Amino acid sequence: MKTFYHFFLLFVSFIFVFQNTVYETKDDQHFSLNSEAAILIDGATGTILYEKESNRLMYPASITKIVTGIIAIEEGNLDDIVTVSETARNVIGTRVYLLEGEQVTLLKLVQGLLINSGNDAGTAIAEYFDGSEAQFAERMNQFVRDTVGVKNTNFQNPHGLFDEKHQTTAYDMAIITQYAMKNPIFRSIVGTKEMEWIGKGWETTLYNHNKLLWRYEGTTGVKNGYVSQSGNTLVASVKRGNSEWIAVTLKADSSELAYGDMVKLFDYGFEHFQTNKITLNPSAFESYIDRFVIPEQLIFTSDKDEKFDIQIDDSAFLIVVLNFDGKKIYSKELEINNNKELKRDNTEDPSIEKKAASSPFSTSITFMFMLILTVVILILRKKRKQKKLSKQIFEN
């Protein structure tokens, strides 16, 4: 019987994994990108719609500033006055031409950082928080690990100038951006097309370096970058209807190739997928209300124009979305209603029971389980009889 229990546990594990299969990425053989690494996700759900080398360590360049910007917004006081240091004044690369000793609000530094990609603004922000770029980099790394939850990113500075240890992945940057875009101040800044800049050393109109804001309908942000070692990098977000996609492309040979890849990714997303935001009618789940807290809304990704059905699997404490082929699109764990004792109610609406039982998904699982269980029991009985017979022969 020990063998049977091992087999049984293995089979139960198989069922659990099968029922929690993640949404599969479509594979179009005619779809190709110039960038060496890329990813497209649903900004609402985090579902991966397309990926290419998305976990490969790469140099991010100025898309690093997404992290610097969201930290400044969430952990600083945007009205604080920051005094620009000589170090910030002399940083190389793209700048907003801050002068040593100039006093600027933290908010203005974040705007210069994200709209005009000011490296000097990035250094000034780092020094405002921690006194140096190196110390602020430790804050950045802790933030993306502990607050955002990504694991394959290591920053060495606040602006993205090249350092061999300054690395991330397309996946990590997509998840970081998904987090940042939930902040309305960050979202507003990265979506700003132009801004009047009046500083001691520079008076001009800043134009957002992200050209997709002018080129692609529905673009909401976020940031581009370039150093020779990283090639052209780009993070962008686009919203149409209920769907907002976030895409990352790393190491394209030119900015135009990066923008071209981004357009391909977004076109692909809108052609094949949709974000569903379904408000649930509690009366449809009336027989479960005494046991579970029914969510007000479900948000999930599906194929474009896909039809689906929503059911409750009370044995697994799940609300499940199935397409009309019986394939699970999405599931969400249900919260137990602590006001009632959790037990099966035999007065449930029989139509709901029949609906769940008639699902091809649940039927196939049940049939497979019963079939394998029967075979295992027969094999074990046969072995037991053979063992008993051998024992009798030996004793005789």
TrEMBL record:
<feature type="domain" description="Peptidase S11 D-alanyl-D-alanine carboxypeptidase A N-terminal">
    <location>
        <begin position="31"/>
        <end position="253"/>
    </location>
</feature>
<dbReference type="InterPro" id="IPR018044">
    <property type="entry name" value="Peptidase_S11"/>
</dbReference>
<keyword id="KW-0133">Cell shape</keyword>
<dbReference type="InterPro" id="IPR001967">
    <property type="entry name" value="Peptidase_S11_N"/>
</dbReference>
<feature type="transmembrane region" description="Helical">
    <location>
        <begin position="361"/>
        <end position="380"/>
    </location>
</feature>
<dbReference type="GO" id="GO:0004180">
    <property type="term" value="F:carboxypeptidase activity"/>
</dbReference>
<keyword id="KW-0472">Membrane</keyword>
<dbReference type="Pfam" id="PF00768">
    <property type="entry name" value="Peptidase_S11"/>
</dbReference>
<keyword id="KW-0121">Carboxypeptidase</keyword>
<keyword id="KW-0573">Peptidoglycan synthesis</keyword>
<keyword id="KW-0732">Signal</keyword>
<keyword id="KW-0961">Cell wall biogenesis/degradation</keyword>
<comment type="similarity">
    <text>Belongs to the peptidase S11 family.</text>
</comment>
<keyword id="KW-0378">Hydrolase</keyword>
<keyword id="KW-0645">Protease</keyword>
<keyword id="KW-0812">Transmembrane</keyword>
<keyword id="KW-1133">Transmembrane helix</keyword>
<dbReference type="InterPro" id="IPR012338">
    <property type="entry name" value="Beta-lactam/transpept-like"/>
</dbReference>
<protein>
    <submittedName>
        <fullName>D-alanyl-D-alanine carboxypeptidase family protein</fullName>
        <ecNumber>3.4.-.-</ecNumber>
    </submittedName>
</protein>
